[in-house]
Automatic annotation (TrEMBL):
The chain crosses the membrane at residues 20-40, 46-69, 90-110, 116-134, 146-167, 179-201, 213-235, 255-277, 298-318, 330-353, 365-384, 390-415. This is Polysaccharide biosynthesis protein. The keyword Transmembrane helix applies. It is found in: Cell membrane. It is a multi-pass membrane protein. It comes from the Bacteria.
Length: 425
């Protein structure tokens, strides 16, 4: 007898458990951020934030945004061919590692980060990339629950461990302990993700590596990579710019509040996006306009509702937390949190037309909107830093995300009208 856990009496068990896992991951990240802010000096908190942001940006250079191509390929091919596609993708990543990893050391050569962090940086960026790609594969394979477990190991369990160690003894209160725990958690997540792929049929692995398929993926991925690097540059430059404009103490507050704002997006991704975007892609590939509209409508309603609730909750709950931290620096710049929550709300709404465009494989519109966002961000910060140095970056984020979301919405409406016309014809 096979027991299915997708639902019990109509209750979406998988989604509920996945949200609980992501919720636990967010609690762990919150705990870690607040514990670091409580026990470490603002300089260490700021350095941790720079490392996290730089690793996050480097992941996209390593991944080359190839997943955007491979995910659509997985969803468009029979399951007995998936192992071959994943193997060819792994070969491509191996080649990218050889080219990109040495270039990433320029971060240290240019003095953006101190050299003593280089070994941790290389180890963590590789493990994080592998874990991220495994998460994406599991989501594309509709194994969201296992993807949630992998993510919890990668981002949650070790963070809880660090928080407990910091609380238990001052001997553990160092960034080295944080990075070691992070590496262990990411390694275990990778092992679980790799083991989960053993259930795939391996008969197709007898076929030779499809270099043409890889080449086609690179052609598709390059413009998407430009788009991703552009938008992710906004989420990386912001920290370095805050440090140069307002100083290390303001950066420490910014790191704390940016972590809270990004957690909103992370929860939205686990509770809404990972369940709906495969349906949207599948509906478009099947030319099923009714299902496409239904899924996009669900995406709109759930994104607005969840994002609004999370942003309001974060804005209210931060006050008792700041009372516990008892650090004037964080309370003095609390308006940074409100501005960042506004920015992440606008960004989240912009993801609705983004997934519609992605499903239609019209990636050039995504590229254009992301490049527009980066340009707008740079111009806005340059202008606002004279008026309000502390809040120039978060306000510029709001402005750039409005332009980006507006561009995607116009493109989505145009493409949807064009699709309707082709069906009618």
């Amino acid at each position: 007898m096979i027991i299915r856990f997708n639902s019990v009496s109509g209750f979406p068990v998988v989604r509920f458990v996945n949200i609980c896992l992501r919720g636990s991951t967010l609690v762990a990240k919150f705990s870690l951020l607040f514990v670091l802010a409580y026990f470490l000096e603002p300089l260490d908190v700021a350095l941790y934030g720079l490392v996290v942001a730089t690793i996050a940006y480097s992941l996209y250079a390593l991944g080359f945004d190839f997943y955007a191509y491979s995910t659509r390929e997985l969803l468009g091919n029979p399951r007995n061919q998936w192992a071959k596609l994943l193997r060819d993708q792994a070969v491509f990543f191996g080649l990218v590692y050889c080219c990109i990893l040495p270039l990433l050391l320029l971060v240290f050569a240019f003095g953006l980060l101190p050299w003593f962090l280089a070994p941790w940086f290389v180890l963590l960026v590789v493990l994080e990339h592998l874990g991220q790609e495994l998460n994406r594969m599991l989501v594309a394979m509709s194994r969201q629950l296992l993807a949630g477990v992998v993510l919890f190991l990668r981002s949650g369990v070790w963070a809880f461990g660090v928080a407990l160690m910091f609380w238990y003894s001052e001997n553990f209160r160092s960034l080295e302990v944080v990075f070691l725990s992070w590496a262990i958690g990411a390694f275990l997540a990778c092992m679980l993700g790799i083991c989960s792929l053993r259930s795939l049929s391996r008969k197709c692995l007898k076929e030779k590596i499809n270099w043409r398929w890889i080449g086609c993926g690179v052609k598709v991925a390059i413009p998407l990579l430009l788009a991703t690097l552009a938008i992710r540059a906004v989420f990386t430059i912001d920290r370095y710019w805050i440090e140069s404009i307002a100083g290390v103490e303001v950066l420490a507050a910014y790191v704390l509040y940016a972590g809270i704002a990004n957690a909103v997006m992370a929860f939205l991704d686990a509770g809404v996006f990972v369940f709906l975007y495969p349906r949207i892609v599948s509906a478009y590939k099947k030319n099923n306009l009714a299902e496409f509209k239904h899924s996009m409508s669900a995406l709109l309603k759930q994104t607005v509702t969840v994002t609004l609730l999370l942003c309001l909750s974060a804005a209210m709950l931060i006050h008792p937390v700041l009372g516990w931290l008892q650090n004037e620096i964080y309370y003095q710049y609390i308006n940074l949190l409100y501005a960042l929550l506004a920015a992440i709300f606008v960004f989240s709404i912009g993801m609705i037309p983004h997934y519609g465009i992605y499903a239609m494989s019209k990636d050039k519109y995504i590229v254009a909107s992301h490049l527009l966002a980066l340009f707008t961000f740079l111009v806005a910060v340059a202008g606002l830093r004279v008026v309000t140095p502390v809040y120039a970056v978060p306000l510029a984020l709001c402005i750039s995300f409005v332009f980006m979301g507006g561009g995607k919405l116009l493109a989505y409406l145009y493409l949807k009208k064009k699709w309707r016309g082709s069906r009618a014809g």
